[in-house]
Amino acid sequence: MQDNNILLSVRNLSKSYAAHKAVDDISFDIERGSIFGLLGPNGAGKSTLLRMITGIFYPDSGSITLDGEPFEGLKNTAMIGYMPEERGLYKKMKVGEHILYLAQLKGLSKEEAIKRAKYWIERLEMGSWWNKKVEDLSKGMSQKLQFVATVIHEPKLLILDEPFSGLDPVNAEVIKNEIFRLAKEGTTIIFSTHRMEQVEEICDKIVLINLGHKLLDGSVYQIKQDYKEHIFNLHLSQPAQTVPADITVLDRKENTLRFQLPAERSANDVLLHYIQQQNNILAFQEHLPSLNEIFIRLVGTTPTARPFDSN
Amino acid sequence: MKTGIIIKREYLTRVKKRSFIITTLLLPLLFIGFSALTTYLTVKSSSAKTVKIVDDSHHFVNKIKSTKNIAFEFSLSPLDSLKNQLKAGEFDALVYVPAFDIQQKQTVNIFSNEQLGIEVENELSDQMNDQLRNERLQSAGINQQQYEAASRSTLTFENKVGQEEKKSNSAIASGISTVSGFLLYFFMLLYGMSVMRSVMEEKTNRIAEIIISSVKPFQLMMGKIVGVALVGLTQVLIWVVFLGVIFIGFGSMMTGKIDAQQATQIAQAAQGSGKAEMMQMISTTLGGINWFSIAGWFIFYFLGGYFLYAALFAAVGSLVNEDQQDAQQFTTIITLPIIFSFILMTAVIKDPNSGMAVFGSIFPLTSPIVMMARIPFGVPTWQLLTSAACLVLGFIGTTAMAGKIYRTGILMYGKKVTFKEVGKWIFRKG
To answer: Are B85 and B226 part of one and the same domain?
Structure first.
């Protein structure tokens, strides 16, 4: 807790609505400058959790520590940039006006807001947009605008809830690169999503929640190691004539072999077996489960759908 | 500070809107145009009519003057042929006056193909009865001057209200009451609804969550309410200036055209018909009214009533989902007391000191309209102060309550909210 490398620390956070517990005793720490993935199916409690971290909701119990200080709701608003999952804009406002308005609400002076808005608009190639009305923007364009409005006050903690939904691949790539760049420059990022493949690509550490409970917590690498099933893919120069005893062949196609080893056995034994047969090894790789597979394995047995969505 | 930024945005986006400029300019024009049109229609409602009169009594022949709309013509033709001409539509009405004794009551028949309207009958009744009265006066040996001197009304009445015996006039007071009551009714509904729509838009637009990650929901709500109030005040100010310009322009135009001689003529003409006393009374009473106090209270009740209802409207806006239908039940609950106070106002003007009037002018949901209707008649100070205090407490109360509903409602999507749940939100701590 006193670790200076921790920006945000969440302890035993709980929040109930009338009918059910939306967030139930969740704890985790986020290191400075890391990209932290908050994973879970729809209705898992992600949005409620994020709303507590942004100060929109008060937790029923538990504590949040931000930058070594107890979190104080909206007093910390200048430190946080929050892009909610369901996000909108004032349709009748002009793009420039809109960015300035949101930036000023975050506490920037008008001059500073103009300066930074210009910088971001140039950076994201939105140059000609300043006097455009928001209602004339395409969905991808307004996503970019929202991203600028979220980061313009240079928050220490950037919270992005499903930031890529509705973005075309080109713009998604632009935003993704900005996320990486901000993290490299020291911004801590919470990235919330139900899309597992994005997490593997972007996040250093994740926490996986379902039905308000924390299921998993750790680095993506460590979690994969923890959930690996000793499955390997082997590519040989000739079809395998024999297979070593006590391995389970999962798939066999021409020169490739996919097999599972008992946990105590080394894969080297298998490789040795084929080397001795003069069968050249062209490729050999351990198959690690994707987060998606782990997720399904973990939540597959418990219901993930809620009676109603608790947004 | 941040509330100030929100107020600024709410104010500027509304004032810059084309619809604001249009309503601000158009509403007074529309009002003037509407009253001009109604006056015009009442004056000119009937197209010119021709009325033929057969006068067997010979009291009226050629003594009935045609008016702008009605041409009276005397005819000596036999009644039956005239009736046939009437049926053929050659003229609009036929009046038959039989020979009769002018000291007795007599019915005169008006024949027509269609309903004539009241104008012909009124005109005939006025002119013919005047004629008969003059004849009766002559036969009694009384001349016109003697008659007018005798029949002039010499008593005028003045209401002295309260201990200071302030001059007051019920007719003028009810005029002021009606106008200010109507304005308050109009403003509370119009601007209250505007707040509600704007909250609904923010919610369905999903901008609300972004904003309240920077400011408290209460700040967003109050920023909006205050911003809209300023828009309302701006609009009123524009109208006051507009009205002032019209009055000054009109006034100078009038004084420029009427010279002294004409003025005495008008005064003499007025004297004759006894209107001078009336005019003088109106001007002294108008002078006797404390306009500053009325304007001051008007602004107080305008702002107090608006804040009270705007908070409630904001709360309703936050409860509504994409489905506009369920807005209806909540809106009705809020608009009912406004409509009720408007109905109460008409009763209050008739009897400004009844128990119901006193209650209505103190109860904060009705007090803005009802008290404003009573003020021109004079209200005891303790009642004014109690009413003002209740209104202030009332709007603090509704604002606090609305804040709690708003905070939860603004982020509540996809679920129909029941009254029971809203009740829970209000009484929840924190």
So the answer is: no
* pLDDT score of B159 more than 80: no
CATH assignment at residue A261: 3.30.70
Chain B residue at shortest CA distance from A108: B2
Q: Is residue A294 part of a domain?
A: no
Domain, as residue range, for A160: 6-225
The pLDDT, as a whole number, for residue A101 is: 95
Are the CB atoms for B19 and B26 separated by under 8 Å? no
Nearest to A56 among B6, B9, B212 (CB): B212
Domain endpoint, select from A225, A240, A259:
A225
Whether B13 and A54 lie within 8 Å, measured CB to CB: no
The predicted-structure confidence for A205-241, as pLDDT tens digits, reads as follows 999 998 888 988 999 889 998 988 889 999 988 888 7
Q: What pTM was estimated for this model as a whole? A: 0.75
Instruction: Confirm if B235 and B22 have CB atoms less than 8 A apart.
Output: no
Residue B388 CA, distance from chain mean position: 24
What pLDDT is stored for residue B394 in this prediction? 93
Mutation target among B210, B215, B406, B407 for the A interface, most CBs of A within 10 A: B210
Residue A70 lies in a domain: yes
Give burial (CB, 10 Å; 0-12/13-18/19+) of A172: middle
* Cα→Cα distances B195→A92, B71, B144, B221, B365, Å: 16, 57, 66, 9, 18
- According to the model, what pLDDT value does residue B277 have? 56
Query: How far is the C-alpha of A254 from the C-alpha of A244, rounded, in Å?
Result: 17
Q: Do A56 and B414 touch (CB under 8 A)?
A: no
| Whether residue A234 sits in one domain with residue A187 | no
Contact between A205 and A218 under an 8 Å Cβ cutoff? The reply is yes
- Mark whether B113 and B205 lie in a shared domain: no
Nearest CA in chain A to B202: A90
For residue A69, tell me if it sits in a domain.
Answer: yes
- Per the prediction, chain A carries an average pLDDT of 86
Supply angle C-alpha B62, B64, B69, rounded to 5.
125
Task: Give the count of domains, chain B.
Answer: 2
DSSP H or E run through A252 = strand A248-253
Average pLDDT over residues A106-121: 93
Q: Is residue B132 a part of any domain in this protein?
A: yes
CA B415 – CA A307 distance, rounded (Å): 12
CATH code, domain carrying A113:
3.40.50.300
Tokens of A251: 């798939």
**Inter-chain CB proximity A56 and B5 less than 8 Å:** no
By the CB < 8 Å criterion, does A84 face chain B?
yes
Co-location of B300 and B368 in the same domain:
yes
In a domain, A299, yes or no: no
In this prediction, residue A304 carries a pLDDT of 47
Task: Answer positive or negative: Cα dihedral of A46, A51, A53, A58.
Answer: negative
Which residues of B touch chain A, with CB atoms under 8 Å apart? Answer: 2, 5-6, 9, 13, 17, 205-207, 209-216, 411, 413-415, 421, 424, 430
Contact A106 B214 (CB under 8 A): yes
Q: Which residues of chain A are within 8 Å of residue B413 when distances are taken between CB atoms?
A: 86, 309, 311
Q: Are residues A169 and A246 in the same domain?
A: no
Q: Are residues A167 and A243 in the same domain?
A: no
Q: What is the pLDDT of residues B248-281, one digit of tens each?
A: 776 666 555 555 555 555 555 555 455 555 555 5
